[in-house]
Amino acid sequence: MTFITCLLAGFLFSLVSTQTVINLSDADWTLQNLPLNISVPGSVPSQAHLDLYEAQVIGDPAPLSRLKTFDGLQTWLLFNGLDTFTSIDFCGQHIASTNNQFRQYAFDVSDQMRNCSNPMLNIDFGSAPMIADQIASEPGQETWPFGVEIVYEFPNRQFIRKEQSDFGWDWGPAFAPAGVWQPAYAIQLETTGNKTPQLYVRNSDVDLSRQGQLNNLPPSQSAPWFLNASVDVLGSLPVGAQMRYAVADSQTNKTVSTGMLNNITMSNSTITGTAILDPLSYELWWPRGLGSQNLYNITIDVVDSAGTAILASVNKRTGFRTIVLNMQVISDAQLAQGIAPGNNWHFEINGHEFYAKGSNFIPPDAFWPRVSQTKMQQLFDSVTAANQNMLRVWASGAYTPDFIYDIADQEGVLLWSEFEFGDALYPVNQEFLDNVVDEATYNVRRVNHHPSLALWAGGNELESLELQNVKNSAPDQYDRYRTEYEKLFLNHLLPVVYGNSRSISYIPSSTTNGYLELNFSLPIPMIERYNNKTPGSVYGDTEETRQSVREAEFSLDYYNYDSSVAFNYSGYPVGRFANEFGYHSMPSLQTWQQAIPASELHFNSTTIELRNRHYPPGGLNITNFPNSSKGMGEMTIAAQRWYPVPNKTDSVANFSAWCHTTQIFQADFYKSEIQFYRRGSGFPDRQLGSLYWQLEDIWQAPSWAGIEYDGRWKVLHYIGKDIYQPVIISPFYNIATGEFEIYVTSDLWSSASGTASFQWYHWDGSPITNVSTPSTNFTVGALNTTKVLSHTLDNSTLDYNNAVLYMTMTAEGQLPNTNVARTFKHENFFHAFSLAHAQLVDPGLTLYYDSSTKNFTVTATKGVAVWTWLDNPAGTLLNFDSNGFLLLKGQSRQVGYNLKSDDTNGDWVNQVTVESLYNNTLSLANSQDAVQDLVQILGRIPAQKGCLGDMGVQRSSICSWFPRRPKKDGRTLRHIRGNSICGRNKSDHVIEMWMQDDYIADPPANGALDAVDGHAWTPWRGPLIVISKAPVEELIPRRTLIEGLRNASDGLASEGRWGKLHHEEDSGKVGVGRVACREDQDKGVPESSSLEISKRHPAFRNADDPPSIAEIINYGLCETFAYEALQPQVSAEKTAKPRNPAIEALYCELGRLGFFKFKRAEIGTTRNGIMNGSGSKLLLDKRKRPLDVDFANALCKLCRTQIIPLAKRRHNSGIETEELHDEMRELVSSWLPDFD
């Protein structure tokens, strides 16, 4: 409970015989809230809320009480967004009802306010799904043929003007929220007396076009700028009101031009004027990558007839640019260039064709009030970082808020915008049409000044899908529904755009074959083409060339979920522009963990399947497993068909790997399509745009997104960044003919020249020399493509199933609107067939972080790393400079990053991991594989100050063995301790392992039970490894070591060999189990268990078990980490000779399995250890070659495939150790002839 204290100061009371009365209202009061450290002046009489408001600690607790009631006041209620059905009462009287989420509503409540002493506003919201159903069931209501309305969850969305995706979509939930979702105001204006009349600006329209410009047509770039400014006000415009303007540079605030507007007109509560502006006074605004984003602040003042008093003022940040969607007939000049006949379908900025590169923007949250400016800035930072210059703001969401357009203006991202209609046909009764016109007029005028606004489209897939559905299901009714479609989208919405803007193009549907005629002498200038096409001509933004997805005569978006033909580019649609295409994937483990419990973290869990809306339930079915499983199956089949898929015994690790593999397929597929579309810029189809589906997620779920709900990049967004570079090299393989070609494609506005190089490799990294792929010089024209290699793939000369082509391109050229030459580089890779059965090898990836440069360095030491992936932990939001790339053997890449948020206090750099597609071939079911992985990690520790040998391991033994020692209570314990890395036995420089054979549920309370040679023993569960922070992390990134330890220990734990992990932290030092480290014991540091320590964290206060490895990492429970040991490690005789980590792993594993005999006298000494005899000579002393990496790899493989299985068989048969050694010698000699 929080208490508020009122303090009285400065008054003293004394006991006197006379009556004393003190007015406490005159006292100095202080209002305090001690827990919140609030102290403000108080008053009496008052209440806490009023004092806090007076001190500006809180807002007005009753703001309507400030409304005045004297005569001569006009009172308005203004709502910028009510979602959706409301009944509004004010001062106890009904004011109005609303039925449109997207309209601005203004209500004059002057009469109600005049006699209202206690104003009260009440807004009742109705259930949108229920009201939609009621409207649909009204007598004589509009109907449509079966299948025209696409039902996702709630039906009948087309009858109401609400965010259509609130009723469900195939990527999001159906919450159908209600509320005041945009700002609302109560406004009072004085209307009488001699004062200047007061006006309040409710909306405005600032339109900058070239003089004489008409919508949808390219204007003259030499014409002056034409300013049309219009202001919508509350209040009464006085007779003779004038308008003036001022334009200032937004960076310097320097005034560029001023003047009066001409041709003033007033209609209702709107005043409009125009002006001609000198084109030489303003710098142009350009999209990202095409020039600078020059912005200006334009102020429009409404003034009285004398021009002295400002009645109203509007300030807008804008830019000078022309943006046109050119859909004109292909000209003779274009035909002469080899462009196919038909119509254009591309954007032109300031008179220049350009290639539109980007994606589709959907609602970033199911609840718009949660969409913050910070989150949107981060999203647009990701857009521009990925070389995108255009987003299609998809219809059927909500109209984009101004602050998002502001960000787009600043970042240079064009926004193709749409009215909120999609995947349905709509009523055309007059009430509905009037409602829509008000909605459209408000939003067109509101955002028209933004230079990022690129287009208005009537809706989503209306011609390509909805009218086509009518033609398929009810062809006899097609003319009726086409007429209704034109009534809404041509007769009503087109005039709204054309009547409020000359600078913006309009199309009635997002995917369309364009117009048949554009004639401004007609009442409705645009006549749609529909399917009136000439054979051999190309129209529209996409055009199906085969009936692979849906039979269609109209242009279609491309979605093909038959993954067997995913990379067959001969089936991709050919058109002038591609505005939707895609395939779904899973989000990352880190994103799933934000939304669902750990018990549901597996691929086809109930929660995940029900969050997957592909395919949608088609109604209010909360158990959509039949449809959802189809979408889940498509992801699964695609992954299995094209890549090795994971099969890990750790369910969470397996789930994470599966999620990642679906992302690889998605990225690979999109890359193939984008390469194809970009190549079309130099082909007859003159393809000049690709916007993939989709940019971001609305929640945590499977979807087509490239950016997950919290902003984490999927593989797709990284690959999109790479393939949207200005100049790229890309391969094309026709699997039917064997024809293989490579092209260089450029979206620069001038030619570029350079060199393309090619080399085939085996997966082990060795070059393939029997296939000739010489380098070639090239010149690629402006917005064009050129072939740099043509070849036929013939398996008789090369097994292309197990070969990868690495290609690079270097070119000299200039970015648009620059005069500086620069070098463009791009690399790509190609494999002819599926990687599912490719003979991938361990690339031996290493990861190093340089704190001075803040770069990660990734190196492939042993083979080709394909789909190399750096992963950042939960608790961070960042993107790497590059990811999902290929590394050749011996190749390194430095990778920077952009950190956006961090909850790890900087420790995330130690938790970054790296892997490649090869990791999918590993299974933690075999703990020996995990052991070898860890050994390889340890083997990469570099030599330093003479402390380490040439193999990167300790000069002294990795570990000393103390074999099983039975205790008097029957428990069996072992202790393994590693010597100092540099030969110093200090606890902050050692790797220690503690192991216990048998699980002990209730360890004795007295801690250590016994000791051998002064070493403490622990009854706690084991085994454990303790890694100190220094100096190990100076030698190898700690996270790399942690990953190896975790994989190895998880592998062992999954086989039931060892108990759970424990760790200990005492005064910054490290101890194990219930025993503090030796130095701490000397200092008398008290002992404590990992479970006790973990209970210091709120998440584990009621825990019965110690934390898991993941929990230790995620919660940061200790500075250093203790992990389950891989196995007891066996050392050979102490020697200064460098050791091979693979040999150590071999003996450790054999020792752990108990294949050696021990005597009591051997306890406590390494000189009598078992490996100083035949064992050590077997593999250490009798060698003819140095212990290099290749040898270590061979020995690892030998250990896994031959020696350990042999040892297991012989041990189970009771064979003697010496005989086992003889058989092992024979195996080693036959596999490794360099041994005696």
Automatic annotation (TrEMBL):
Query: Which terms does the UniProt entry file under GO BP?
Result: glycoprotein catabolic process
Q: Which reaction does it catalyse?
A: Hydrolysis of terminal, non-reducing beta-D-mannose residues in beta-D-mannosides
InterPro entries, alphabetically?
Beta-gal/glucu_dom_sf (IPR036156), Beta-mannosidase-like_N2 (IPR054593), Beta-mannosidase_GH2 (IPR050887), Beta-mannosidase_Ig (IPR041625), Galactose-bd-like_sf (IPR008979), GH (IPR017853), Ig-like_fold (IPR013783), Mannosidase_ig (IPR041447)
> Could you say which residues form the signal peptide?
1-18
Q: Provide the E.C. number(s) assigned to this enzyme.
A: 3.2.1.25
Beta-mannosidase-like galactose-binding domain sequence ranges: 73-182
Q: Which UniProt keywords apply?
A: Glycoprotein, Glycosidase, Hydrolase, Secreted, Signal
GO molecular-function terms, A-Z: beta-mannosidase activity
* Keyword tRNA processing assigned: no
Enzyme class, spelled out: hydrolase
Q: Which residues form the Beta-mannosidase Ig-fold domain?
A: 840-920
Instruction: Kindly tell me the pathway this chain contributes to.
Output: Glycan metabolism; N-glycan degradation
Q: Where does the record place the Mannosidase Ig/CBM-like domain? A: 738-826
Its subcellular locations are:
Secreted
Gene Ontology CC annotation, any one: extracellular region
Q: How does it assemble?
A: Homodimer.
Q: Which family does it belong to?
A: Belongs to the glycosyl hydrolase 2 family. Beta-mannosidase A subfamily.
What is the protein's given name?
Beta-mannosidase A
Q: Which organism is it from?
A: Ramalina farinacea
